[in-house]
Each structure stands twice: as structure tokens, then as C-alpha cells.
Design goal:
The chain is mainly alpha-helical and about 270 residues long. Helix content is about 65%, strand content about 0%. The chain has eleven helices and no strands. α2 (about 20-30) crosses α5.
Length: about 270
Amino acid sequence: MVTAAAAPWGRGTVMGGNPAGWSLGDEAWFYLLFPLLPRLRPGLRTAALCCATGPLLWLAGSAVTDPALRSWLLDYLPLGRTPQFLLGAALALAVRRGRLPALPLLPAALAVAAFHLALVPWHHAVPDPAWYSPYSASQLLSAPLFAALITAAAQSDLRRPDGPLARRPWTTLGNWSFAWYLVHEITFRPWLHHYGHPAPGLPTATTWLLLLTTSLILAGTLHHLVEHPLERLLRDHPAGPPHTPGVARPRSGSEPTTHQAREELPSPG
């Protein structure tokens, strides 16, 4: 775990044994920032400030001539990803406290889809090593769009707890998403390394459908056999002194009251 947390801080260790494992180190850094979040003022002003850092960082990348160094600084180093975490935290707190206007879900989803469609011709027109390629821009410039989409989906869930997004298939995929993220690279890359990229058309669609199905089955298995049991174990054994049944445990001065607990900060995941 210590190795995973430290991996993205070094250029030579950022990928480690899993090309997707760098995000665990970023997430560990975000957890260290949690004590500072009570000072964060949730709302549109904070969100707008965080959104503005994406284009500024992208433009600043033009000053770095080494593509590998630029990619590490902008895409993997936890400091470069911190504005996105703060953006999500600010919006999550604002939604919880009812400080945001309602965002329409469908336009937000269409905006994300349109941005990704625009990446296709952009990728063919500009080589990845160039600072203005879509490689880093795909996450630096799209953060506000994804933030709007997630916010709109959260507001929709609050308005309609039994809405379409609350149906079993979607919640199941959401439960599996963390495990899928960690296994998708180590599922896809060995296949592509051994068989190469499939021919355009039906072979491509068939290959990606097969890889997606395989990785989802693996993610579901890991969720049920590893992730969920470990999470339940941690929740059933909270940190603190042992508690004798039938004896009321005194609350320390630093322990939140019931009202304060409702205002707890959301997790970064």
C-alpha cells in the first residue's frame, strides 16, 4: 500500500506493475487533504476557480519540452490532479447543503459525449507528444463537463431516489467500477500485446466487447470476493477502544454529534 501511495510521485515508478495503479497514490494524497476541506467554501465560486486551473495547467504544459515529463506533471502527479479533487469536493458539499441550482442531466451527458467525439479528429490531427494534443487535454479540459454531469446525476437521485439511475444494473456497475478500473488495463494490454490491434469494423467491435465482458466478470468477482469482504471487515471493526455491551461509551469532545455526523465530508471515490 505504501508503494502504491508513493508511485505517482516519481517519474520512474508512476505506472508500477499496473498502468492504472497510479490513481491509488493520487487518492492517498487526497485523503491527506481531508483535514483541510472544512476550510473549503462550497459553491459555484470555488468550483469556477478549480475549473479555471485545468486550461491554465494545459497552457502551462507548452513550456515543458519533454513529452514524458509534461505527461507526468499534468496527468499523474497528485499535485496536478488536486484541483479536480477540490472541484468534486466543493460541488459535493454544495449539493449536500442545497447551495446549487438544479442542473439538467441530459444536456450534461450530451456535453460529455460531444467532447469525447471531438477527441477523435483531434487525435488524428495532432500527435500525442505535442503539448496541444488531446492526451492531457482529455482530462484537464473535460473536468468541468464531468463535474456538471456528476452533479446533475446526484441532484436527479435526490429528487427521484427511485429513478432510472437507481435501478439494479446501474448500481451493480457502480459497485464494480473501482475493481474494474484497477483490472481493465491488465486485461486489455496483454491481449493487445499478444494479438495486436484488430482490423477496423466488426473485428474491433467484437474484440472490445469480449475484453469488456471479460474485465467486468473479473471486476465483479474481485468485488464480491475481495473488496466487499474487506470493506465489511473494516466497518465491523472500527478504530478505537473496545466497547463493553450494555455499557454506554462516553463521547469524547472531538467526536461528532449526530447532527455533526450528517455534515460529514463525502469520500473522494
